């Protein structure tokens, strides 16, 4: 009701229903679409039915979000894309051949600053 009243979309993840499989997370999520606008703000929540203090909701932020201030505005479509990207298997970087590895040893090392 609050999402509809404010025109903010919401996605509620239910990790306990995902059977421990990250790829099931969106299949078990509840999406509340309060606005059909492609750029409508969307908030993320996770629902935990068996929290030690009873049923419980947590707010969810994207990994890049430092947590300083309000969460950056993201649409439902943007959040779906980010989750798909996060779940996509990472491509392995090719291992250097022996010739490439030996030529790398003659290159000056990069400076590291702290």
N- to C-terminal distance? 49 Å
General form = globular
Described by its quaternary structure, the protein is single chain
What portion of residues belong to β-strands? 15-25%
Q: From the alpha-carbon coordinates, what is the Rg to the nearest angstrom?
A: 21 Å
Trace the largest sheet across and list its strands: 2-1-3-4
- What's the SSE pattern? HEEEEHH
Structural class: alpha+beta
Number of strands: 4
Tally of domains: 1
Percent of residues in helices comes to 10-25%
Low-pLDDT sequence parts: none
The overall pLDDT average reads 82
Largest sheet: 4 strands, mixed
Number of helices: 3
Description of the molecule:
The chain has 114 residues and is of the alpha+beta class. It has one domain. The chain has helices at residues 2-6, 76-87, 98-104, and strands spanning 9-13, 30-32, 42-48, 56-59. The protein contains three helices and four strands; from the N terminus they run αββββαα. The protein has a four-stranded mixed sheet, with no helix packed on it. Residues 47-114 are annotated as: Disordered. Residues 77-95 have a biased composition (Basic and acidic residues).
Key structural traits:
single chain, 114 residues, 21% helix
Quick summary of this structure?
The protein has helices spanning 2-6, 76-87, 98-104; strands at residues 9-13, 30-32, 42-48, 56-59. The chain has 114 residues and is α+β, with helices and mostly antiparallel strands.
């Amino acid at each position: 009701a609050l999402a509809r009243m404010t025109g903010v979309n919401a996605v509620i993840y239910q990790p306990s229903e995902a059977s421990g499989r990250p790829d099931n997370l969106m299949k078990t999520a509840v999406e509340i679409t309060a606005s059909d606008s492609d750029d409508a703000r969307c908030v993320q929540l996770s629902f935990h039915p068996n929290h030690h203090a009873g049923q419980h909701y947590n707010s969810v932020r994207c990994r890049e979000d430092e947590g300083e201030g309000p969460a950056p505005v993201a649409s439902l479509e943007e959040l779906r894309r980010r989750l798909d990207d996060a779940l996509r298997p990472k491509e392995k970087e090719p291992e250097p051949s022996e010739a490439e590895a030996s030529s790398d040893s003659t290159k000056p090392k990069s400076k590291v600053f702290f």
